[in-house]
Amino acid sequence: MAIRQILVIQTAFIGDVILATGLLEKLHSKYPEAEIDFLVRKGNESLMNGHPFIRETIVWNKTGGKYRNLFKLIGKVRKTRYDLAVNVQRFANSGLITALSKAKLKIGFDKNPFSWAFDEKIPHEIGNGVHEVERNHDLIRKLTDSQYCKPKLYPSAQDFEAIKPWQGKPYICMAPASVWFTKQFPKEKWIELIKALAFQVNIFLLGAPLDKDLCNEIMEKSGHSNVQNLCGQLSLLQSTALMKDAEMNYVNDSAPMHLASAINAKTCAIFCSTIPEFGFGPLSDESHIVQVEEQLECRPCGLHGKKACPKGHFKCGFDISTKQLVSVLN
User: Fold this and answer.
1) What is the mean pLDDT of residues 222-232?
2) Would 143 be classed as within a structural domain?
3) In what order do the strands lie in the sheet with 227-229?
4) Does residue 124 sit in the same domain as residue 171?
5) Are residue 133 and residue 203 in the same domain, yes or no?
């Protein structure tokens, strides 16, 4: 079957979209003449700005008439009549898009409620140490080969130009926030880490506008004169560009970790309640994973983070030592 038009669907969150970009790399290498569209939820489309392998980023707006917008989107997809639709998302709405897509070949994970309508259903197993990019690659393994591609983003020349004012001397990036409390290294521990970095290096705190207050508190209490709070000042791709040449990027098990992977930046990933064996760890050539050294019977407490520690002590965060984190710079 000739494959000239491809649709990749990933309507989950930022990190999931970044990890799915490995498929774009692999599909382009196999079908260099094919036109690839990428379907994402509204808010994630800016990640694909300037991506050389994407014809169109299709956006599903889940607010202001979620299902009206969904069926309008399905109509658009059906008109294109893709040769191949690859659904990386395991939830029902993306499965419905795939099932009704009129694509000649529809592939997705068997856990999707609409997988009965797919031409190929691929198993998806979490917890066996296989990385998510490998699980994603299983979707197209029969069409390509056994070698997966790492995720990759493409900050523009303008993105790199925008971050030049902060690159006058060596620097470290830190992304202290996370949507989930138990994925977030405690603010007190971020303050300890900054205080322990005695040498003169700039420290940039990265995050969304909502993270600004948290990072202001960390900055003020650290007493380090070279800390700057850049929350809300940079786009996702500008943050990615800044991370590229950092001496180290300290991140939670959250979206900034995947941004670092997508630019092959030095990474120290801090895992609190979750564990790397779930398959979402860093992928950069120089990657370090730091987690509590004690074997806690309550860890992991779930696949995703929680709003509060179920045991009330949050030892998986507080018992990570500053020495563990500083040692990755040696």
Assistant:
1) 93
2) no
3) 227-229, 202-205, 171-175, 248-252, 267-271, 287-291
4) no
5) no
265: its two tokens: 């930046």
Contact 88, 112 (CB under 8 A): no
HSE at residue 197, side-chain half, CA atoms within 13 A, is: 29
CATH number at residue 184: 3.40.50.2000
Q: Please, how many CA atoms are within 13 Å of residue 170, restricted to the half-sphere of its CB?
A: 7
pLDDT tens for residues 27-57?
999 999 999 999 999 999 999 999 999 999 9
Residues 32 and 120 in one domain: yes
Domain that holds residue 270: 157-329
Q: What predicted TM-score, i.e. pTM, was given to this entire model? A: 0.95
**Mutual orientation of helices 187-196 and 212-222 as an angle, nearest 10°?**
40
Which residues have a Cβ under 8 Å from the Cβ of 266 and sit 6 or more positions away?
A: 246, 247, 248, 249, 260, 284, 286, 287
Coil, strand, or helix at residue 271?
Answer: strand
Burial class (CB in 10 A: 0-12, 13-18, 19+), 297: exposed
The count of domains in the chain is 2
